[in-house]
Amino acid sequence: MADNGNGISRANANPSKSFFIAMLTRDIDLIDCILDLLDNSVDGIGEAARRANVQLDPDHPLQGSTVEISFDRDSFQIADASGGIPIGIAEDYAFRFGRPDDAPELKDGTIGLYGIGMKRAIFKMGNVVAMQSSTGTESFSLNLNVDEWRKDPQVKEIDQDHELVEWSFPLREVVRAGTAVPAGTSIKITELYEGIWRQFDNPTFAERLRRIVSRDYAFILSRGLIVNVNGVRIDPVMPVMRVSDDFAPFKHVETDDGVTIEITVGLADPPPEDTSATARNPDSGVYGWYVVCNDRVVVSADKSSDTGWGVKPVPAWHPQYIGFMGVVRFSSAEPRKLPWKTTKRDVESSNTFYQRALPIMMRATKKLTDYTNNRRADSKRLKKIEKAAKQVPVSRVTANEQMRLPITSTNDLVRIEYTREAADVTAAAQALGLVGSSPAEVGIQTFEYFFKREVTR
Amino acid sequence: MTKRSFEAINYMLRPNKNVERKLFVATLKKLHSQFDIPNYRYVGFGSMWFSDFILMHRVFNICDLVTIENQKSRQKRVEFNKPFACISVRMDEASVALGEVLDDKKPSIVWLDYDGPLKNAVTGDLETAVGAMSSGSMLLVSVNALVDQLRGHKADDEEVSPEAYLADICDDEGLLKCGNQLTLNDFPLLAAKIIHDRIKAAVLEKQPGCEYIPIWSYRYADGATMVTVGGMIANSADRTKLEDSGVLSLSVATGLTIFDIELPILTEKEKRALDKLLPSAGKLDWKKLEFELRPSEVEAYQRFYLEYPIFGELAA
What Pfam families does the record point to (chain B) (predicted)? Predict the structure, then answer.
């Protein structure tokens, strides 16, 4: 830029489109992008109800709403019949990169808050976007070729020293009243990038997406929303805890500064007998801590120091703790107070409310890890008690300031250890009809086989 | 006593398996027009019999052959029985050996011929193999496809349902809903699909730029029902070569569709009687035979009479 002679100049700090596209899409994986689009659909339902002044059923506010997600090698599509995006919002806010300061205040526990989800998802997946949205009265469509958009700088030179950034997306078929397009939003992305279609074409992808939606959307699905992936409806998988006369999960609820914190900790399943490296414990993926913000699971089955594991006095995660279930829920009408990051896949551990919750979470964790230590000596008896307790969804666990656990007793125990050829142990496991062939399990079963037949009690 | 399979079966005396190997060789011959098969490496589970190794060396003069053997107590027997000097024996678990053997990226044909249940094929061996292979390489997997293998399993002293067991070993909850396919005749199709899907998933995840092209889907039974499925890992250049080779126009290279090999067990005399009528432009008339065979058996024999093996006892 020109020097105006007084020693003061101006350095151009305008953003570049390529940078935005690359940066936005780098830190998020495909499934989280899809969830971001799903978040928008959920928020759309609430927005539409507020605009229409409709009171939603407090227990099932999303009843009757369906989101269809479909994908294959060639395209991705998400469509809902919820509120749609009003023209004014589309023109001024919806396509901005980041929620502008003068945007209308977020209300009533929304889950989309950073204003980048939709753009990020589009940029991540493919080059050609066809979008249509209707509120039932107003509608528009948007057709975007990302590569062409990227190459057009959309910067206007005002004079030699100044340029004006005017990024925009072209809205077409704008109808401001009486549209014939039914209410809802659909986004279709084609010319998928190679890294994306290779995932959509992968036979395991749909199952992975199903698993994640059923878990991370469990609370939202149980409020009545229907999500179909390639035509198959997804059922919620809610964290559960064992409840009986012997078992009561710990539950703590507090509200502070407009944020409700609800912590529930208990045992979902009996801990395993065998915790060796070769043990068959396939489901360890469901146990651990869940962090939930406005009903959206942002961290699931966490076993890291983020949720207190390995932070004294809580021990680091070990397969011995399989069966552990902890859920911490933060709810607020002001979503920016909650401890989530932009990808909604991570907890903001420096968040005030999270820091408040963590020590309580850790105390309850410690209590349960101590129980799994003590129960080892008496695991046969305790396993029966554990199995007899009913699994109750976390949302239906009643408040209990104390965790109730069965009393553990100690017996005299010895440990048997020996080594045999792997092929023989596998053959023995087969003969025993064991699922998997954990050597420790083979050892236990062969001992019991002998004991039952040759040792009288 | 439960015998290990190599103690229980003489691998050479399985006519359907024998024919399967020959059909596989026929497809390789077709591929040979575009791919330098003699300079491939062949990796398999030779056990004590090495039937597939002998074919690969004889027919294509493949001289880089590796057998993987995990039963250390049989090492000397394996070494003793290997028919050619150019076969090297790797005593190790397949999941370890495959990664190391294939790591140099030499184009390879890998046949993971598990004589056991599907469980053996879903422990990560094929994923390890795919991860280490290069474009143009081929992978085949054979497993027992008897539905009974899913029954009678226990976990925590409780019976596990067949679909829960299958979902567990495959680590795929989607299979919990496959109950109606767990029948004698449908499970082999499901097992074949599971393995094709796993190879495809592994290629998409571990081989950027490459895709999986299914070539083989055989079902056969010499006693227990088995399936053999496989295909090629190909970048776009190898994909074009594969298309140009015309291999997929062969009737015995059906891609994802199951091809049944159902040969009757015949006496030598019966075989010779049938051979005298072949080749024949039309279908052989089973009613005109001097002995009883089902129409399907006659038809199957007519299809594969050239490949049908003769087993005989040799005088000492």
Answer: Methyltransf_35
B159 touches chain A (CB under 8 A): no
Q: Which domains does chain B have, with CATH numbers?
A: 5-146+184-261 (3.40.50.150), 264-316 (no CATH)
Residue type, A326: G
Whether pLDDT at B9 is above 70: no
My answer on whether A107 and A220 are in the same domain is yes
CA A304 to chain CA mean position, Å = 16
The verdict on a CB contact (< 8 Å) between A421 and B2 is no
pLDDT at position B1 is 39
| Tens-digit pLDDT profile for residues B103-112 | 998 999 999 9
Using the beta-carbon criterion (under 8 Å), do B171 and A201 form an inter-chain contact?
A: no
- A344 with A268, same domain: the answer is yes
A260 forms beta bridges with: A255, A331
By Cβ distance, the residue of A202, A282, A435 closest to B171 is A282
CB contact under 8 A, A435 and B173: no
| Minimum distance, in Å, between the CA of residue A167 and any CA atom of chain B | 34
Residue ranges making up the domain that contains A260: 240-396
pTM score above 0.90: no
Q: What does the alpha-carbon distance between residue A421 and residue A428 come to, in Å, rounded to a whole number?
A: 11
pLDDT value, residue A417: 84
Q: How far is CA A341 from the centre of its chain?
A: 12
Q: Of A206, A233, A260, at which residue does a domain stop?
A: A233
DSSP secondary structure letters along A55-67: PPPSS-TTTT-EE
Helices B295-304 and B268-275: angle between axes, nearest 10 degrees? 70
The whole-number pLDDT of residue B22 equals 93
> Please, are residues B251 and B214 in contact by the beta-carbon 8 Å criterion?
no
Chain A, nearest residue to B70 by Cα: A423
Q: Does A202 touch chain B if contact means CB atoms closer than 8 Å? A: yes
> Is residue A212 one of the residues assigned to a domain?
yes
